[in-house]
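Data deposition worksheet. Section B asks for the primary sequence of the deposited chain exactly as it was used as input, without tags or linkers unless they were present during the calculation. Section C holds the resulting structure in token form. Section D is free text for depositor observations; keep each observation to a single sentence. Incomplete worksheets are returned to the depositor.
Section A, Depositor: J.P.
Section B:
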Amino acid sequence: MRLTLLVVLCAISMSASAQWFTKHERFAQLPQIQDHSVSRFAKADLRKDQKIRNKTIAPSQYNLEVSEDFVMKTAQHNMRFRIYNLASYNFSDLARLYVQQNRFSEAKWYFLQSNFLSRQQNNDKLTINNLINLAGVKADIGDFSLAQQDLFEARDMASAHGWLIDLISVEKKLKSIQNSRITSTRAELRYASNAMLSQPAVD
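Section C:
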């Protein structure tokens, strides 16, 4: 009885795990590494980093919405607990996110709020940065004169502190806005002249 039971169990186990008689596919042998120095890892990482840097990835709408939600909650927390210095940076970050989405009216409002808080905290660096960004938003809307006023104010603040890098940034933005203003004026004049030419002559 025991012998019969042993034979039956052996037959069942052999049929359940009958991998010993199946033929497995043999893969090609991996090539031997010739360079055994540590420097090869640095080279490989450098090549990978260069590929990542060369690939420009545009932020998706989902990423922008997630970032907006996170920064908004952080700003609400900082405002609730009167941490105004950090809240001014949060508002500035929110405004930049809105600029990326071409939501200029919201971006303008948050830059103004950040400016109000940064002036209260005597954070002139952030105020200058906000004025430069705010001028860019106003120029995009078409308020070139107001944009120039913001840049003149930022230039005065930067020169009062002797901050050369900020002065250069303001001057670059001023030139950019002046060029945009000239371009838009020429386009308006061209449009107006074309409209006048297309009108029928009245006797």
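Section D:
Confidence is low (pLDDT under 50) at residues 52-57.
The CA atoms of residues 148 and 174 lie 7 Å apart.
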